[in-house]
Design goal:
Number of domains: 3
Largest sheet: 3 strands, antiparallel
Order of helices and strands: EEEHHHHHHHHEEEHHHHHH
Strand content: 5-15%
Shape: elongated
Strand order of the largest sheet: 1-2-3
Distance between the termini: 77 Å
Number of strands: 6
CATH topology of the largest domain: hpI Integrase, Chain A
CATH superfamily of the largest domain: Intergrase catalytic core
Structural class: mainly alpha
Amino acid sequence: MKGSERCIRKYVKKDGSVTYHAEVRRKNAKTLRDSFPTLTLAKNWVRKTESDLLDGKQLPDNKARKLTLNDLIDQYIRLHLNKHPGRLKDQTPHLNWWREQYGTRILMNITPGLLAEAREDLLSGMTSRKLPRTNSTVNRYFSSLSRAFSLAHQEWQWIVENPFRRVTKLKENKGRNRFLNRDELNCLLDCCKQSRNPQLFGMVLIASSMALRFGELVNIRWKHIQNGFITLEDTKNGDSRSIPIPSPVASYLNALDSPKIPQDYLFPSKDPERRHPPSMIRKAFDKALRDAQIEDFTFHDLRHTCASHLAMNGATQGELMEILGHRSPTMTKRYTHFTKEHIARVLQKTSNNLIDP
């Protein structure tokens, strides 16, 4: 390419592994560089980089070349995440980690090679609960920032390309396949009624009857309960949705002795200035599980329980997506499971209709 120079250097590390550092130097512009495990990948990157520059896919001015990762995260939050409170809450811890590690780095220096190193750092670190990070957790850290880089490339034209697109996602374990059958759920609800925590029964009843997330559950205010529906405003994907109230939940709500001031929370925290933290019911929920002799079960599995029984009772994929608040059928599939007895009944019914006795 006229006006640029290319260079690929081979480096052998102490452990014997080899990396290839590729550079494209441009006149009166910042050098573009990256590192690769093979010579072929390095050559391909050089060719693509020079092709992109010929097509005009480059930073528009010197100011843009000085933008840092902190600048990108600030813009991403201001123009995008602030419109989606649920996503902002979930992604803030991830974005804060990126700030602490690489916040002052120039965007052009956030390369796939650097991201691969960040992936290893995340894997070797611990969560806030002092547990090792899983592959799925690390992937969430990456997806939180990848969206910001996509906007920087496609809409704001701050960067030539999104470096996350050339970093392989970690393989994740299959989603949990744990849900309660009818007897287990009713036994758990009976134990929740005996709990010293007066809110536990209602929380478990609504979560298992309406497939709500804990965060959605604790943000319900009395004003959200109208005309036989609960309207969820603070959801994970930022979209509001209204769910019809089934009769067991309606009976529970009608029996509550509450002033029902519109702004009051259905499940208020002891401190009115704070959100209702999961720790407020964790001990009570764990005790109820022990009393019901239910093992390997989490509060979020109540959502799986509801979704699975909805599917076994004939709910369509579209209906499940509407109730669960999913945009992707793939995500809905992860939440719906079937008992062996249900599968056996379906096979037997099909066989009876298909084969003459």
